[in-house]
Amino acid sequence: MTRAAVRGRTSDVKTEYSKDDLPLDSDFANVMHDWKKRCSKSEGDWAFPNPNTLKVYHAEPIQQDYLRLAGRNAQLGRDIGWHTFRHTYRSFLGDGGTPVGVQQKLMRHAQVSTTMDIYGNAQMRSKRDANS
């Protein structure tokens, strides 16, 4: 089942591309299976239910109270949020030589231009190596 959770509300995902199967690394899949056995059972069968409510967490307080604080403590020079992980993931895919079409599918973008125009920043090491 494919669902989205935004501000504590759940719904179907927005696009057909979001419904595509997403392959997981087998080691990561094993970690998730082990976690699922240990986590609280929830009505929606969530992987990370709030143990107090057994519903999905609200992402905004987690971002505000933990992610941004972690970014500041790490002296990253700017606030980080959930989308930071998407940008970083795309950079890692590109840095690892993953073909652009595969990146598009893994990012679940309808258009490859979204993958490259919005998320297309390369890591500094890759840019430095290419320039050398």
What descriptive keywords fit this protein?
2 strands, two-stranded antiparallel sheet, 2 domains, 132 residues, 6 helices, mainly alpha
What do you see in this structure?
The protein is built from six helices and two strands; from the N terminus they run ββαααααα. The chain is globular, with a radius of gyration of 17 Å. The mean pLDDT is 85. A two-stranded antiparallel sheet has the order 1-2. It has two domains: 1-57, no CATH class; 59-132, no CATH class. Helices cover 48% and strands 6% of the residues. Strand 1 (3-6) and strand 2 form a beta hairpin. GO terms for molecular function: DNA binding. It comes from Edaphobacter acidisoli. Residues 21-123 form the Tyr recombinase domain.
* Helix percentage: 40-55%
Instruction: Give Rg in angstroms.
Output: 17 Å
Beta percentage is 5-15%
Q: What's the average pLDDT?
A: 85
- Overall geometry comes to globular
Run of helices and strands? EEHHHHHH
Tell me the count of domains.
Answer: 2
Ends: how far apart? 47 Å
Treating each run of at least 4 consecutive H or I residues as one helix, how many helices?
6
Topology, number of strands: 2
Structural class of the helices, strands and pairings? mainly alpha
In the sheet with the most strands, the strands line up as: 1-2
Largest sheet: 2 strands, antiparallel
Parts with pLDDT < 50 across at least 5 consecutive residues: none
Pfam family, one: Phage_integrase
Domain Tyr recombinase: 21-123
Keywords: DNA recombination
Protein name: Tyr recombinase domain-containing protein
